[in-house]
Specification:
With 621 residues, the chain is α+β, with helices and mostly antiparallel strands. The protein has 14 helices and 19 strands. The longest helix has 64 residues.
Length: 621
């Protein structure tokens, strides 16, 4: 154990030492580069000044007086052009000028590179008031020097000075000055220094990154190792919750109670409640608690329960030890002394329904983990979804009842009376009256079919009263009967019906429901076929072992490629058929698919737009 602890410390010390050495070497390298760059730039500036001084001889300025009288002279104009040209060809140079000396402690200007209109222009004879001792020394002792950075009235500069010597007298005729802005000068030096700085920083960054990832990797491995047991426990929790939720023969109350017990077992709590909150009242709907504590149906004031905190937080709330928490003055703690608590709000259709809570009279040790919290959140989501499903089922049941008793009864009455009148039981009708009455009868039939379809959809989704009762049934008479029924519809659409079937086709099916499937597929095929088309009903060959596959093929509109995945959805009708046939609910294929799958079979289709569609019904043979 001691060795294990020492190794990381040794590595950290080694990294710190290397980083320190790199920083020191980098600093030394940067200083050396700075000195080298500055010496080079100073020598270069000095060379420029010397070259400029060599290019201007004393004969080129022997007529200058250093006064305003020089402005009109040829020599002044020539020197002005020379220094201006020198400035222009050296982009980093700000001023080039010639200065003279008449005694005292200041130099004066003979000529400079500035345009006379510039505010920085110096006229012949203007005294340079910021003359330094170094500049005077350069003039008087005929020295070429570099000075700066220094400050004068024009700014901050690094300047190169070189004397122009009169060979006859051996004295200094003038002093050439070349100014470079101190910022520009420092920028050149800094760019040179950037190389060792960046190399040093890169090396230090790499070392720190290495240390960071080494530590992180070690921490990550440790987390993986320490969380394996927790992950396995969480997996067991989720599997248990899944098994509870998918247990077919258990009621919702039984599922909730089982889930609460599982929560107590896995969270190591003693009481688990699913509660209903209405106003300021708190009612226990389902519980997993020790005897002689609380009971399902008990009511409390919401303010006297920890659920009050969960509702206010509107999120999961976990408290390991209430006596040391910010909520230790809460009424529930004072009244019941419950030390640990974890709970989550339950919402149904976006509205607060109640809370799912787990608590215990003892502090929770070592405290609720993130896995515990995730598990409670997941259980809360499952409870919310189950309650929402219950509410939807209740609404569907109400709809089925209303549809059955409030819609079917009057529709059946309308059908009966219309049928009697069409048969002349209420007296002789004119042709126009019969036509109107027939339209009423046909519309009523469509309404009855729509109501029946809606009822079937509700039964399919709720699983109530939708029972497949299989008997040994010959499908051939059913198909022939449907063909006869569809003769008028086929004639109206100029479509031919063709049966390619054996003499018998006996299968174990629900006769009424299978007739509904076949009627839907065959009538659709007729309605959506093009004029002159053929609708064929037959058996797919070769047969698949143990199965029989019927097909209904048309030569109609086909299904648009993008809409194929939606063909079996409720209320869906493809765009092209809505234009060709305005009637239809979009429920027929949804119901047909449910019926076929209820037989343990499969319903699918193949289609090409503007060519046709073929539906296949595979059933156990």
């Amino acid at each position: 154990m001691i060795e294990t602890r020492l190794k990381p410390k040794a590595k950290i010390d080694w990294i710190v030492l290397v980083v320190f050495l790199v920083a020191v070497l980098g600093s030394i390298s940067t200083v050396l580069v700075e000195k080298s760059a500055e010496n080079r730039e100073r020598n270069l500036l000095l060379t420029r000044a010397n070259i400029t001084a060599a290019a201007i001889g004393p004969d080129d300025m022997d007529e200058l007086t250093g006064t305003a009288d020089d402005l009109g002279t040829t020599q002044y104009q020539a020197l002005k052009a020379t220094v201006t040209h020198i400035k222009q060809i050296q982009k980093d140079v700000r001023f080039v000028y010639l200065m003279g000396y008449k005694g005292g402690d200041a130099l004066f200007f003979y000529v400079d590179s500035e345009d006379p209109s510039s505010e920085d222009y110096s006229a012949p004879g203007d005294v340079y008031n910021d003359t330094s001792a170094v500049q005077l020394d350069a003039f008087q002792n005929q020295k070429a020097i570099v000075e700066g950075p220094y400050q004068d009235e024009w700014g901050s500069w690094v300047s190169g000075f070189a004397p122009i010597l009169d060979p006859q007298t051996g004295k200094t005729a003038a002093l050439v000055g070349i100014d470079i802005a101190a910022d520009s000068w420092s920028g050149v030096i800094f760019l040179e220094m950037l190389v060792p700085i960046l190399i040093t920083l890169s090396l230090i960054s790499l070392l720190l990154l290495y240390d960071f990832f080494r530590r992180r990797t070690r921490r990550f491995i440790l987390q993986i190792e320490t969380s394996e047991a927790e992950a396995e426990e969480q997996g067991d929790r989720l599997r248990t919750l899944y098994n509870i939720g998918t247990k077919q023969r258990s009621s919702v109350p039984e599922q909730f109670r089982a889930a609460l017990k599982t929560g107590n077992d896995t969270l190591h709590t003693r009481l688990a409640l699913l509660n209903r909150i209405e106003g300021g009242s708190f009612t226990i709907l389902y519980a997993s608690v020790p005897p002689d504590t609380v009971h399902e149906g008990d009511q409390f004031a919401l303010a006297e329960t920890y659920c009050d905190l969960t509702v206010r937080e509107d999120a999961l709330l976990a408290i390991d030890t209430m006596s040391t928490s910010a909520f230790k003055q809460h009424a529930c703690y004072k009244k019941f002394g419950l030390e640990s608590y974890i709970g989550v709000p339950i919402k149904v259709s976006g509205q607060l329904f109640g809370t799912l809570t787990f608590f215990s009279p003892d502090p929770h040790r070592p405290g609720f983990s993130e896995s515990d919290k995730d598990f409670v959140r997941l259980m809360g989501a499952w409870v919310s979804a189950t309650l929402e499903r219950q509410e939807i089922d209740r609404m569907k049941s109400e709809f089925v009842s209303v549809a059955s008793h409030q819609l079917r009864t009057p529709l059946t009455g309308i059908k009966w009376f219309a049928e009697l009148m069409l048969k002349g039981k209420a007296g002789v009708l004119s042709a126009e009256q019969k036509d109107f009455l027939q339209q009423i009868f046909d519309s009523n039939e469509r309404m009855i079919k729509l109501v029946n379809d809606l009822l079937n959809v509700s039964r399919i989704e709720t699983g109530t009263k939708f029972v497949i009762t299989k008997t040994s049934t010959d499908l051939i008479p059913i198909l022939r009967s449907l063909t006869v029924e569809l003769v008028a519809l086929a004639a109206a659409h100029t479509v031919t019906l063709k049966l390619s079937l054996p003499e018998k086709l006996v299968l174990n099916v629900d006769e009424e429901k299978m007739r509904q499937v076949l009627q839907n597929l065959m009538s659709n095929a007729v309605k959506y076929s093009k004029a002159g088309g053929v609708v064929e009903v037959g058996l797919l060959e070769p047969k698949e072992a143990g199965f029989v596959t019927l097909f209904v093929k048309d030569s109609g509109l086909g299904v648009p490629e993008k809409q194929k995945p939606r063909m079996f959805e409720k209320f869906f009708r493809a765009d092209n058929v809505q234009t060709a046939e305005t009637e239809g609910t979009g429920l027929g294929l949804y119901i047909a698919k449910a019926i076929v799958e209820g037989h343990g079979g499969k319903l699918w289709f193949e289609s090409t737009e503007n060519v046709g569609t073929c539906f296949y019904i595979k059933l156990l043979g």
